[in-house]
Amino acid sequence: MVINSLNEIAVSKSIKNCLFYCGCCAFLLFLSEKKFISYKKIMKPIEDSELILNADGTIFHLHLKPENIADNIILVGDQDRVKVVADFFDTQDFEVQNREFKTITGTKNGKRISVVSTGIGTDNIDIVLTELDALANIDLKSRLINYQHRTLNIVRIGTCGSLQADIPVGEPVVTAISGGLDGLLNFYKDRDSVCNLELEKKFQEHTRRSRLLASPYFVESSSELLEKLKGYRSGITLSAPGFYGPQGRVVRLDIIDSAINEKLESFEYKGMKINNYEMESSAINGLGKLLGHNTATICLVIANRRCKEFAPNYRNAMPDLISNVVNLLTA
Questions:
Q1: According to CATH, what is the number of the domain 66-330?
Q2: How many Å apart are CA 33 and CA 175, to the nearest integer?
Q3: What gap in Å lies between CA 290 and CA 3, rounded to an integer?
Q4: What is the pLDDT confidence band of residue 21, given thresholds at 50, 70 and 90?
Q5: Which end of the chain has fewer CB atoms at under 10 Å, N or C?
Q6: What residue ranges of the chain are covered by domains with CATH 3.40.50.1580?
Q7: Residues 134, 126: contact at Cβ < 8 Å?
Q8: Residue 102 and residue 52: Cα distance in Å, rounded?
Q9: Mutual angle of helices 281-291 and 122-137, in 10-degree steps
Q10: pLDDT given at position 80
Q11: How far is CA 229 from CA 114, 282, 295, in A?
Q12: Is the pLDDT of residue 43 over 90?
């Protein structure tokens, strides 16, 4: 009888363990189906070659550890502008730089805040957004995705060129929707889930872009961050994959569509016009939304392409814009 009892106990424990394991698997599958987490990625560490870390445990390009970044992050293109932004913090407790990627973290209004330089272009944004997300949502020691998602609030402060005659140089412009002419987001699965496909179609029909050019994509900025920036003019922004030809400039080389800027100026979608050109916001919005972060961009107009005007002293206006955004983000 004693042996039978022990067997019964063993069988009971085995059944309970099996039920517990099955329950955990079912729960992970449920979360995966709801897109809260990726079941397959949780069960398998990310390979060393795919998520590269430095010898000191920092992430490859940014040279940061998870504790080095705040939830509120300002992005700037120019590494020299990082200090200009950080000077508006109440405190600064961390600083690091690798190549064009410089970071300072501190506090403002009692909240932690970071500023990171990205360099120019959506290709650099691919690096910065991917690595910031990894710092927030991957255990770098186990290389497993964290169970609990951490959402970052990311605002780019930059410069741009206006495509509308009534937007003068010196005025800040907020990106409500960003259109990517670079094609970066097209490399990622599920890009359609975060893009405005109706806008893509109307834009293509209006501009009749060459088949040689990358398929454009349009992604909305975070409504939460747009609410913080609601005091500024907003509209559609285009991110170009270059400064000259891709933005309709002719220096020595002719471009494929000499009327492109006139087409862009006349385009309208649900009352919104294409306000400006810059070179990063589409990838910030696209990758940010796919990765579950809040993103927005605000740029100071330093050139009006329609009126052929340029503001040589635009740097004098940047501190006021930066101060205001830092306060709005940490309010």
A1: 3.40.50.1580
A2: 32
A3: 57
A4: very low
A5: N
A6: 66-330
A7: no
A8: 18
A9: 30
A10: 97
A11: 18, 18, 12
A12: no
